[in-house]
Amino acid sequence: MNEIAIPMFDRGDYVKDKFGNIFKIIVVPAPQRFERDSFEYDEMGYQLELIEKAPNTRAREVGDGAVFHREGDEYWIYNTEADIRDGGDEVVPETIVATELVLFEKSEEAEDIEVSDVPIFLVGDLVKDAFGNIFEVAEAKPSQRLDPDRFDYCNMGYRLKLVTKNPQSPIREVHDNVKFVEEGIKFWVFNREEDARAVEEYNPYTITASELVLVRSVLRTKPRNSR
User: Fold this and answer.
1) Is the distance from CB of 109 to CB of 56 less than 8 angstroms?
2) pLDDT digit string (tens) for 104-141?
């Protein structure tokens, strides 16, 4: 059976689900994170905000108990039903996935928005590096400071805590021989390979934020703005 293509939207686009609810795209990852054959594949590609709930429709579910109850609720959603099942959750008629979404209104700012080399994470998110190690985002700089074109760009945007070390992974390094040698240790990491190279701190085991893939969002279990 042919795989259903994951639709591509821009941050700020308004989309409609199969029941007529309107959502706004809050966060968009880099395009390679939608490629199922890539090690960077992110099964929860879009973060949505419920803008307008269609009357007489049941609340849309994300998985793991997360539900779009009211306008203003924000959650990351799975790309496909297969991704939900792979994650151990059940697919029900109320489950929302990215493959059902259709464009409702294009963002007026979409043409001015470029996909950043630096992914956007929130404090509390769990992320995975290229070698399968799991980290928690312990601290994060404001998202606007992760834009390399800004005058106040910060080349180390995230402080990571090593949560689970993959036994087969080499020890990941940061700079000046600062290394994630054991679980629980925390360090600020460079955003990109070029940031590390600029200060002559890059080697094959240097960890950067640009390689990280979201494993579990802190927003999966509660809306960002509870009312």
Assistant:
1) no
2) 888 765 444 444 578 888 899 999 998 999 999 999 99
Q: Can you tell me the mean pLDDT for 206-218?
A: 89
Q: Is the pTM of this model over 0.85?
A: no
Token couple for 22: 């309107």
Give me the amino acid identity at 79: N
Residues 162, 185: contact at Cβ < 8 Å? yes
pLDDT classification of 101: cutoffs 50, 70, 90: very high
Q: Report the C-alpha gap between 50 and 62 in whole angstroms.
A: 12
Distances (CA, A) of 17 to 60, 85, 182: 9, 20, 44
Q: According to the model, what pLDDT value does residue 108 have?
A: 64
Q: HEC profile for the chain?
A: CCCCCCCCCCCCCEEECCCCCEEEEEECCCHHHHCCCCCCCCCCCEEEEEEECCCCCCCEEEECCEEECCCCCEEEECCCHHHHHHCCCCCCCCECCHHHCEEEECCCCHHHCCCCCCCCCCCCCEEECCCCCEEEEEEECCHHHHCCCCCCCCCCCEEEEEEECCCCCCCCECCCCCECCCCCCEEEEECCHHHHHHCCCCCCCECEHHHCEEEECHHHCCCCCCC
Amino acid at 165: K
Q: Give the Å distances, CA to CA, from 11 to 22, 118, 175, 196.
A: 14, 15, 33, 28
Start-to-end C-alpha separation, the chain = 43
